[in-house]
Design brief:
Elements: E1 11-16, E2 31-39, E3 43-47, E4 51-55, E5 70-74, E6 77-81, E7 85-89
Antiparallel strand pairs: 1-2, 1-7, 2-3, 3-6, 4-5
């Protein structure tokens, strides 16, 4: 049986009910591919596909000349409520999309019989 637990760590396709619900975190997509980091009864945690902070001012708050602005990539995670997920699509065994589950690792003590 396949469950939501099986997609943690994988890249899945997500289609949104209402794309405007994610505008405030810089996502303006009706659908896209996202790496799933976790889930609970409220929704999914996914890796933000590309969050950048632009710096267009100097230390005194004055605008920087064109071409001198800086851009910094920021690692971020976003929460997507189940109510905003229209559908999910997983790619079993597809290279670059389906990764080993953290729940399948052999961690802990082993007792030799």
């Amino acid at each position: 049986m396949f469950t939501t637990e099986n997609i943690i760590g994988d890249i899945v396709f997500i289609s949104f009910q209402n794309k405007s619900m994610l505008n405030h975190v810089g996502i303006d997509l009706e659908c896209g591919h996202f790496k799933v980091l976790g889930y609970d009864h409220l929704g999914l945690w996914v890796e933000h596909p590309g969050l950048y902070i632009f710096n267009g001012e100097d230390k005194e708050g004055k605008p920087l000349p064109s071409g001198e602005e800086s851009k910094e990539r920021v690692d971020a995670n976003i929460f997507i409520h189940w109510a905003n997920i229209q559908t999910l699509m997983h790619y079993p065994d597809r290279k670059g999309y389906d990764f080993p589950s953290e729940f399948d690792k052999d961690i802990g003590f082993k007792i030799k019989e």
